[in-house]
Amino acid sequence: MSHDPPYAIDLAGKLAGFDGHWQPRTVATFNGHDVMVVKVQGEFVWHSHDDTDDLFLVLAGRLRIELPHAVVELGPGQLFVVPRGMQHRPVADEEAHLLLIEPTGTPNTGDPATAAQRRTI
Amino acid sequence: MSHDPPYAIDLAGKLAGFDGHWQPRTVATFNGHDVMVVKVQGEFVWHSHDDTDDLFLVLAGRLRIELPHAVVELGPGQLFVVPRGMQHRPVADEEAHLLLIEPTGTPNTGDPATAAQRRTI
After folding, report:
1. What does A42-98 look like in DSSP terms, one character per residue?
2. Contact between chains at A55 and B70 (C-beta distance less than 8 A)
3. What is the pLDDT along chain A (121 residues), one digit of tens a residue?
4. Is B100 within 8 Å of chain A by CB?
5. What's the CATH number where A85 sits?
6. In chain A, what residues touch B62 (CB-CB under 8 Å)?
7. In a domain, B49, yes or no
8. Which of A17, A59, A67, B121 could form a disulfide with A97 if both were Cys (CB 3.0 to 4.6 A apart)?
9. Cβ–Cβ contact A91 with B under 8 A
10. By residue range, what is the domain housing residue A50?
């Protein structure tokens, strides 16, 4: 998928098409990155990405990003970029819907052995 | 601004802080890219970016992206990536608010001579 087709990509519509938490779906590609939507709930694992910043944009619900010395609380329309190399743990007390952007192939846990398989929808 | 500070970036709040159309403001950086918000209204210029894809996400209002052989209509929560090298013209009949992501330094018109100066807020 080197180019996206010439139609609007509806994020809520994409999110309505699947279940499961912490399983990002790629909805577009951009400069070697995957633009993804994901449903999250509960605590993810502490991890870091040595080679990429990690962009989170909340579309619905609330997300807490725990950092070594801070906690960032995000609601709809709010974003945060975790700098590369920084340990972080995303947590959502109730289901939240996010847009994520990461280089294509980045393991979501920081470790290919435990990462979710990335699928395109 | 190599790293963003550890607090949520509220897109609507950033947009409330300035006026003017087609004048993107950088609100975060990410892997060598600027994450920007912009208010648009009317017709922009036809242009292309040879070296970068061009990501548009509508936050409020409606945007029409005219392409050489297609038109993409976008509403809130909808995105489109214009592939690098493709001529395009964004048009908004009424004011719309967008999130844009482009490599830091990309001229918004495709031409440094006519581009808006990019500012960080």
Report:
1. EE---B--TT--EEEEEEES-EEEEETTEEEEE-TTEEEEEPTT--BEEEEEEEEEE
2. no
3. 445 558 899 999 999 999 999 999 999 999 999 999 999 999 999 999 999 999 999 999 999 999 999 999 999 999 999 999 999 999 999 999 999 999 988 888 888 888 887 788 8
4. no
5. 2.60.120.10
6. none
7. yes
8. A59
9. no
10. 11-120
Assess if residue B4 is contained within a domain.
no
Quote the number of domains for chain A.
1
Distance from CA of B26 to the nearest CA of A (A): 13
What is the value of ipTM here, to two decimals? 0.90
Cα–Cα distances (Å) from B8 to A82, B55, B106, B118, in that order, read 11, 21, 25, 21
Is A77 within 8 Å of chain B by CB? yes
Using a 10 angstrom Cβ sphere, with 0-12 exposed, 13-18 middle and 19 or more buried, the burial of residue A23 is middle
How many other CB atoms are there within 10 angstroms of residue B110's CB atom?
A: 18
Domain assignment present for B1 = no
- Are the CB atoms for A23 and A116 separated by under 8 Å? yes
Instruction: List CB contacts (< 8 A) between B2 and chain A.
Output: 83
Name the band, by pLDDT with cuts 50, 70 and 90, for residue B110: confident
- In the prediction, which pLDDT does A109 show? 81
Contact B80/A29, CB-based, under 8 Å?
A: no
